[in-house]
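Structure ticket #2291
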Amino acid sequence: MDRVAVTFNAGSTSLKIGVFRLEDGLALRLGSGIATLGDEPRFTFRSSGRDEAIDLPSGAGIDARLVSQVVGCIVRRGFEPIVAGHRIVHGGQAFNGPVLLEPDVVLRMEDLGPLAPVHFPPALAIVRAVRSAYPDIPQTASFDTAFHSSQSSLATRLAIPRALHEAGVRRYGFHGLSYKYVAGELRKHDPDLAAGRVVCAHLGSGASLCGMVDSVSIDTSMGFSALDGIPMSTRPGSLDPGAVVHLLRNNFHDADRLEDFLYHRCGLLGVSGKSGDVRVLLEDFHPASREALDLFCFRIAGEIGRLAVSLGGVDAIVFTAGVGEHQPEIRTGVAHHLGWLGLSLSESANKMNATVISARESEIVALVLPTDEEQVIANEAIEVIIRHKLSHPPVDVPAHQSR
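Resolution: structure written out below.
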């Protein structure tokens, strides 16, 4: 059997899996899988060019039973898990890099739960489920917020009383694992460009932008929560606090209902009234669908303009994630608003999703670079194992408790 690292990237209704061979301090991908939950829950795993799919129980959730089935599928393909790495959305001010999931670390993570109430429960459920199924292997955590810990206090501060800032009500930024990977890929592609002022646009179901200098995060569109910044599939992006107060007083009267509304009923879905999926909206010709896409592109361009202020200019724009990598129409829509900044795209290169999509005369280089969060999780898992000089000691994960 191949001894492997298994990475877990948990969402509210899906679970992405990566399988990596550990070789000479490197993580080499051997397979990928995704468990989709909902009406027809299913796990699909691909390795060596071969797919395997299993139906999951109706009503399956992210729990020990799901992990047992998913990992069982991986083991049947000849892989032996020896370490598990997890994507954890929020590290608060406590975690600015990957860590070994020892009992005290998990308890500290549980204290951070209120900072990411939608994302923490499934992630911690996976940690416990792996501990139950494989009690003797180490587990590691990689934090989406860690990449942005380099930002200055000016970039992270909200205009609220200092005591609240010090208590953790501040800007954090997310999608850090994606930005870390893309920054590394840009260094391989063009080291000189990577050393400059780069805006990376992670455009997927969740979406944000990050301004970097020499691959270091300087500013980002998302702030205190993953609701902030540009419009997303079902999230509104930046929203006047007065509008939130108005909604709470007149429409919802309950913070939990308002939270569900903001996470699941706004964004492209809310504006179009049809879908939060860019692919669906691009094929639909109703005015509301077009308006949703136009708003999406307009706000992305506006955020690039704001980040240009933070960076003192822009040398390159990198598009990544599902929409950023595969939807030329969106990239064209963004570039339409940035001619003043000197951005011009090559129509043919953009349509082909080429690596470099800017026109020769463009003053800004525009690129399309695929992201791979699971690769970063695997790399960081190895980093933690080496740091702690571990092979696979037991890792105790206590059940959730209110503290």
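Closing remark: The chain has 16 helices and 13 strands.
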